Amino acid sequence: MSAVQVDTTTTAPPAPPAPPRRPELASKSSSRAVKDLIARIVMWTAFFVAVIPLVWILASVLLKGGQMLLESQWWTNSQAGITPRKVGGGAAHAIQGTLYMALVTAAMSVPIGVLTAVYLVEYGRGRLARLVSFMVDILTGIPSIVAALFIYALWVSTIGLQRVPFAVTLALVILMIPTVVRSTEEMLKLVPNELREASYALGVPKWKTIMKVVLPTAFSGIITGILLGLARVMGETAPLIILGPYTKVIASDLFGGLMATLPTMINNDRGENLQPALDRVWGAALTLILLIFLLNLLGRFIGRFSKVKS
Amino acid sequence: MAKRIDVKDLDIYYGDFKAVEGVTMTVEPRSVTSFIGPSGCGKSTVLRTLNRMHEVIPGGRVHGSVMLDDQDLYASSMDPVAVRRTVGMVFQRPNPFPTMSIRDNVAAGLKLNGMRGKKQLDEVVERSLKSANLWNEVKDRLDKPGAGLSGGQQQRLCIARAIAVSPQVLLMDEPCSALDPISTLAIEDLVNELKSTYTIVIVTHNMQQAARVSDQTAFFNLKATGEPGRLVEVGDTQRIFSNPTEKATEDYISGRFG
Question: Quick one: fold of A74-183+223-303?
Answer without folding.
Answer: MetI-like fold (1.10.3720)
